[in-house]
Design a protein that fits this description.
Distance between the termini: 32 Å
Strand order of the largest sheet: 7-6-5-9-8
Structural class: alpha+beta
Largest sheet: 5 strands, antiparallel
Radius of gyration: 19 Å
Order of helices and strands: EEHEEEEEHEEEEEH
Strand content: 25-35%
Number of helices: 3
Number of strands: 12
């Protein structure tokens, strides 16, 4: 198949024991055409809901409604405007599963940039994210701040 300036050979391999579909790009060089293809593949619809638990109830949370995920002791929780749900993932697993409008802001938190209302930052301490319609906030560590800014700028365009 021809796409732009490159020749693509598409190979589909069925493996029934896979839990998710993975796309591998094998290329001689990483050029603009491959960058565009990668961007298109990354824009493919991603996870839209996640299972959360509120007391004994199993709930399906729309990822647009989740403000952030954070660690609470040994658990990972999802915060919405007014509720907190336990989820059965580790933060590093969520980083891989969540759509690209989520970004890690510290060792213990991943935020939804679509729901950010304000960012407070001074020279002495870390930044602080405030969310639309909520009193909740999350601290941004200096280590993650540069990547956070990059994702925020990209998503706000």
């Amino acid at each position: 198949m021809r796409k732009g300036g490159i020749v693509l050979k598409v190979v589909v391999e069925i493996k029934e024991d896979l839990e998710e579909t993975t796309v591998h790009i094998l290329t001689k060089e990483y050029n603009e055409d491959i960058k565009k293809l990668e961007k298109q593949l990354n824009a493919y619809p991603q996870l839209q809901e996640i299972k959360g638990y509120l007391l004994e109830k199993e709930c399906f949370l729309n990822l647009d409604d989740v403000l952030f995920f954070e660690t609470e002791g040994r658990d990972i929780v999802a915060h919405t405007i007014d509720k907190v749900y336990q989820v059965k993932y580790k933060l590093y697993e969520l980083e891989q599963l969540l759509p690209d409008f989520y970004v890690r802001v510290s060792k213990s938190a991943i935020v939804n940039v679509k729901n950010i209302y304000a960012i407070n930052r001074d020279l002495v301490r870390n930044g602080m994210v405030e969310f639309k319609g909520s009193h909740k906030n999350v601290s941004i560590s200096r280590t993650y701040y540069k990547n956070f800014q990059y994702v925020l700028e990209r998503k706000r365009k």
